[in-house]
Amino acid sequence: MWGFFVFMIMIDLIKHLMKEQQEVIRTSHFDRIMDKFREGFPNEYKNVIDSISDDVKSFIRDNNYTIKFLNSCSTGFGGVRTDKAVIICSPNFMSSVGDFLYTIYHEIRHEQQISIFKMGNPTIDSLDDFEELSEKYWQMELDADRFAKQKIAKIVMNSKIPIDKAKILFRLSQYIEDYPSLSKMVKFHIAKIANQLKYMRDSGQEVKDISDHPSVKQYMDRLEDFI
Ligand SMILES: [Zn+2]
Question: Structure pTM?
Answer without folding.
Answer: 0.86
